Structures are given as structure tokens and as C-alpha cells.
Amino acid sequence: MGNVTVVNHPLIQHKLSILRDKNTSSKDFRELVKEIAMLLCYEATRDLPLTDVEVETPMCKANFKKISGKKLAFVPILRAGIGMVDGMLALLPSARVGHIGMYRDPDTHMPVEYYCKLPADVNERDVIVLDPMLATGGSAIDAINQIKKRGPHSVKFIGIIGAPEGLKALQEAHPDIDIYLASLDEKLNDHAYIIPGLGDAGDRIFGTK
Ligand code: PRP
Ligand code: URA
After folding, report:
1. CA pair distance 56, 185, nearest whole angstrom
2. Mutate which of 29, 77, 102, 203 for ligand 1 pocket (most atoms within 8 A of beta carbon)
3. Angle, nearest 10°, between helix axes 10-20 and 26-44?
4. Do the Cβ atoms of 112 and 103 come closer than 8 Å?
């Protein structure tokens, strides 16, 4: 079974509390999503392999470490996952970026896929799927199904807020993946929104409501 890590670093808790506030502007919301994604990326890449390098400092030559040529792909789930990409790329600028478009049917809450464009060599890459909200888990599960059809080396999921229902469903559907969240919230409401959550992440990032 993959690991579930709820990253409760004080910086993340502080930023997440501002993110949740209904009075936070779209501009600040976008900035906070980016910053939280960067902090989660730091934790989710803890196992990146290192290789020895010789460096000549102004004082002498010595052996140090660099990240070995790991091939990564970030795959945001549209729309809200887009808000996390810049934070991830700030730390790992050479990663490739794929996109999967999903929306939840408002009545059934089931995900509907409308777009999928992944790097051509995704079968040679370690993939990190990005979506701020893990509610029923349907969107993440379907996105990872699509990615796995292309045979990636590995898949991880980074979200900001998860509901217990969605986390359980994702673990059952994809027991091999590591999952990183900034918070595991209380529950889903009758409309499959996360409580207390932060509302509709896509609308808050893009100001569409
Ligand atoms: C939101 C969110 C996730 C999904 C989570 O997207 O960004 O993709 O819901 O819900 P689930 O775990 O129950 O599938 P939404 O469907 O609102 O689309 P949008 O990002 O385009 O607004
Ligand atoms: N999608 C969101 O954006 N928010 C939720 O609470 C649930 C799904």
C-alpha cells in the first residue's frame, strides 16, 4: 500500500487557513495555491535519487550530490490543478507537464473526461498528478486510470484538501500510489463538497463565480 502523508508544516497550516477564508481574493488564492503546492512538492520529492558530483569550490575540490537525471511529469487535473503547476515547476523546472480535463457532473458527481494530453514519453517518467481537491476521489481515480494505461514508471498524487471518502476510494482504486495532502478534512456534504473545505477550487482560482 502506498503512503499517505498529511504535511502539517506550520507554513502550510497558516497558508491553508487563509486559503479557506471566503473573503480571500482570487489573486491571493492563486498565490497561496502556488506556494502550498511548492511546499508539498518539497515533501513529495524527498525520495528523488541523488548522484555524486565533484565540485570545485573557491577553496578546493570535493564530492557532493545532485539529483540524478530523473524524468518527471506533472499532470494537473483541469481546471483547478493548473493552479499548482507553477509552484511545482519553481522547484523542478525541467519536468514535463501533461493535462487531463475532468469536470464533475453536477447531478451524479461522476467525473467526465474532456481532454487528455500527456508527454509522449510518459512511459519513461515518474508522474505526479495535481488537484487541490480530493472529494469523492472520482476525478483523481479516472485521471490515474488514463495515465496508467500509458505505463509510467510510477504515479504520485498531490492534493491540498482531501475528504476521508475520497482518500479511501483513491487508495482502494490505486493502492500502489503515494498520496500527499495539506489537510484531511471532516467529510463530504450532500453535494459532494468537502466540509469545511474551501468551496469550489476552480471557481476561486479563476474567479468564475
Ligand atoms: C473539482 C476539483 C477536482 C474535483 C474533485 O473539479 O478540482 O477535480 O472537483 O472532486 P471528486 O474528487 O469528487 O472527483 P470540478 O469538477 O469542479 O471541475 P473544475 O476544476 O473545472 O471546476
Ligand atoms: N471540488 C471542489 O472544488 N471543492 C469541493 O469541495 C469538492 C469538489
Report:
1. 49
2. 102
3. 150
4. yes
User: What does residue 26 show for φ and ψ, rounded to 5 degrees?
Assistant: -60, -40
In this predicted structure, what is the pLDDT of residue 209?
85
Q: Look at residues 164, 199, 206 and name the one whose alpha carbon lies nearest to residue 181.
A: 164
Candidates 177, 183, 167; CA nearest to 135 is: 167
CB-CB neighbours of 18 under 10 Å: 13
* pLDDT of 180 higher than 90: yes
Ligand 2 atom closest to residue 201's alpha carbon, by position in its atom list? 3
Ligand 2 pocket check: which of 82, 133, 165 to mutate, most ligand atoms within 8 Å of Cβ?
Answer: 133
Share the mean pLDDT of the chain. Answer: 97
Structure-derived torsion over alpha carbons of residues 184, 154, 105, 193, reported in degrees to the nearest 10: 0
pLDDT average, residue stretch 135-164: 97
Q: Which residues pair with 207 in a beta bridge?
A: none
- CA distance linking residue 133 with residue 200, whole number of Å: 9
